[in-house]
Design a protein that fits this description.
Elements lengths: L2 H4 L10 H9 L14 H20 L6 H19 L4 H25 L3 H28 L3 E3 L2 E4 L9 H19 L5 H20 L3 H18 L1 H21 L4 H11 L8 H19 L10 H8 L8 E5 L2 E6 L7 H38 L4 H17 L10 H16 L6 H4 L2
Helix pairs in contact: 2-3, 2-6, 3-5, 4-5, 4-14, 5-16, 6-7, 6-8, 7-8, 7-9, 7-15, 9-10, 9-15, 12-13, 12-14, 14-15, 14-16, 15-16
Length: 437
């Protein structure tokens, strides 16, 4: 069976197609003068939420199960309290809208628009397609010296996101790689699994050229977990192929080998001999912790980290980070977040907010793994969906140790959570027909 035939029935006009359009919009170049705010994909995601609401009203059915409503609604209490405690009404409303978009509304809409595993796979393949495009742009940037600045050379692969969002391409490529690995390890026809394997191996190069240590670590954790869930024998086979591909790409062709070795080695030196970026990160982590100590339950309020940073940060914090290249001029970007989602939430929303958000994510992960165990025991179809969902969740939860929300690629995090939520709360429990049209 061909790949095209195995995808969702195009003639049925799957309701998940608007979500695919959101993913596709992230292929557009970001303006070099952009400030990292909302973009076309964010605007379309709002329309997707509206479309989902209208569709539910027309069908006159209960939108979410009780479990799904509780899990997805957990963050709302902490967000509301933090919005009330914000330094200004404008900051509270803006922050509340962004958090609701990323962690509540868009994930819920994606969950409700996915009808079955075919829709799930279509969305997963769209992640792979976007990753392939952004990765190709990133490799071209490295090869031609037109990327973002890294160690004095404009070689860092950032795709169409530009130097103002150096993590954008790394995030997109990582999501695509995790989806490709999950699809390759499923029970689809051989041709489809071969294409997914080729995509996964091809995405290793742009991921390496992103020079993003956090994305490397998160991808290694997610893909290792996927391989372990798929079985020891398959894990060893795929692992050997990945290592061989890495040796060929980096060792055989010399693709940035010296810089990659230095970057990989710096991961083990973050405590003994940290560079300035790591020192800044530690300092901002300490600042976020200090904010939490001042207001342990509700935090300093949404959008409150920049305003309270200097009162809690040590003199080791630099004035900002330098960005250059990839079509943009030299700029100094202020450090306005701790680059750790858990500490950002803890500092701005306190324990109430952190328990709501992290508790919901943990519940999704537990339900997703339980769904994987069910299909494995029963030998039922859908192990690829389980592996994709578990991998995406693990990647995001690991990456949140080194990053937080912000930039055009943030909307992809919302779609990722929606994918994982569908498997955890619907597909993994064998209740697809409950939300089917």
């Amino acid at each position: 069976m061909s790949l095209a035939l195995s995808l969702p029935r195009a003639r049925a006009l799957s309701p998940v197609l608007p979500v695919v359009a959101v993913v596709a919009l992230l292929a557009l170049p970001v303006s070099p003068s952009g400030e990292g705010g909302a973009g076309p994909a964010d605007a379309l995601s709002a329309l997707v939420v509206l479309y989902c609401a209208v569709r539910l009203l027309r069908q006159r059915r209960r939108p979410l199960s009780r479990t799904a409503a509780v899990v997805l609604g957990l963050p709302v209490v902490g967000l509301a309290l933090a919005a009330v405690g914000a330094s200004s009404p404008g900051a509270g409303i803006t922050g509340l809208g962004r958090y609701l978009q990323v962690f509540v509304l868009v994930p819920a809409a994606v969950l409700l628009l996915i009808r079955d595993r075919s829709d799930f796979r279509l969305l997963a393949w769209s992640f792979v397609g976007l990753a392939g495009w952004q990765g190709a742009v990133g490799v071209h940037q490295f090869a031609t010296g037109t990327g973002a600045s890294y160690q004095g050379e404009t070689i860092r692969a950032v795709g169409t996101f530009g130097p103002q969002d150096v993590m954008g391409m790394a995030t997109v490529v990582s999501f695509g790689l995790v989806c490709a690995v999950g699809l390759a390890l499923g029970r689809a026809p051989v041709r489809q699994r071969a294409i997914a394997t080729a995509c996964a191996l091809g995405l290793l190069l742009p991921l390496a050229l992103s020079f993003s240590r956090g994305a490397w670590i998160a991808t290694a954790v997610a893909c290792s977990a996927q391989l372990a869930l798929a079985g020891v024998r398959r894990a060893l086979t795929v692992g050997a192929v990945a290592v061989a591909a890495g040796i060929v790409l980096v060792g055989g062709f010399g693709v940035g080998s010296a810089m990659l070795q230095e970057r990989v080695g710096s991961i083990t030196r973050v405590a003994d001999a940290p560079d300035q970026s790591v020192t800044d990160r530690y300092t901002m982590w300490a600042a976020a912790t200090g904010m939490w100590r001042d207001r342990p339950l509700t935090g300093v309020g949404l959008k409150g980290f920049p305003e309270n940073r200097d009162a809690h940060a040590s003199v080791a914090l630099s004035a900002g980070s330098d960005t250059d290249g990839a079509g943009a001029g030299f700029r100094r970007q202020p450090l306005l977040s701790p680059h750790n989602m858990y500490l950002l939430v803890l500092g701005e929303q306190g324990l109430v907010g952190l328990l709501g958000l992290a508790g919901g994510w943990l519940a999704l992960l537990v339900c997703a793994v339980r769904g994987w165990a069910r299909v494995r025991r029963a030998g039922a179809p859908g192990p690829d969906c389980a592996l994709v969902a578990c991998g995406l969740l693990l990647w995001q939860l690991t990456d949140f140790l080194y990053a937080d929300i912000g930039g055009p690629s943030t909307v992809l995090t919302a779609v990722c959570l929606g994918l994982a939520a569908w498997w955890a709360l619907v597909g993994g429990d064998g209740r697809e027909e409950a939300l089917a049209r």
